[in-house]
Design a protein that fits this description.
- By secondary structure, the protein is mainly alpha-helical.
- It has 2 domains: 132 residues, no CATH class; 39 residues, no CATH class.
- α1 packs antiparallel against α5 and α3 crosses α5.
- The longest helix has 29 residues.
- It is elongated.
Length: 184
């Protein structure tokens, strides 16, 4: 895993998350207005600001976890496309596990729940795309080594000598001859 890119992807995703959140609240005040109908459920603004650092850290951690999952399942396709794909999946997860669960447990209306569902879903798709744009895997990964059948000794020797172990023309490091012979 490329840890520096992972941290950058999580940071970029967090910035995108808050930028989208502020944009939605600014351009679609109906969401705030709908929330004001439930003062027993939501904290007043002053109290929210007092606990906002917890929300910032928790949001960053959640996005870091999604970036780690992205890095674990990323197979070398288009970063933004694969990011959108994981964003859709996480968006569905959040809507079902958080928004609709809260609708059942909290005394809020269906309109607010649906508005939150749309906002959170779009937000996670955007976060996924940003993660996909930023995260890039390392050139030498264990997955590729295993797929190529390279021994640890051969890889270590080539790595220490800074020589390429395989061609980068093919996602699995195969050259055209190996690919036509069916070795990839």
């Amino acid at each position: 895993m490329n840890y520096s890119r992972l941290a950058l992807a999580a940071l970029g995703g967090t910035v995108a998350s808050f930028a989208f959140g502020f944009l939605v609240l600014w351009l679609v005040p109906v969401l705030i207005n709908e929330g004001h109908k439930y003062p027993a459920v939501f904290r007043p603004k002053e109290q929210m600001m007092a606990v906002m650092p917890i929300g910032l850290v928790a949001t960053f951690m959640a996005i870091l976890v999604v970036a780690i999952i992205f890095a674990m399942i990323h197979r070398g396709g288009s970063g933004p496309t694969e990011g959108a794909r994981i964003g859709v999946l996480i968006g569905i997860f959040v809507v079902c596990a958080f928004v609709l669960h809260n609708y059942v447990n909290l005394n809020i209306g269906l309109k607010l729940a649906l508005e939150q569902a749309v906002a959170y879903f779009v937000q996670w798709v955007i976060i996924g795309i940003v993660i996909g744009l930023i995260y890039k895997p390392l050139a030498y990964t264990v997955t590729i080594l295993v797929m190529k059948g390279l021994s640890a000794r051969k890889f270590a020797g080539a790595f220490m000598a800074r020589k390429p172990v395989f061609s980068t023309a093919h996602p699995l490091g195969c050259d055209r001859a190996a690919e036509t012979e069916g070795r990839c």
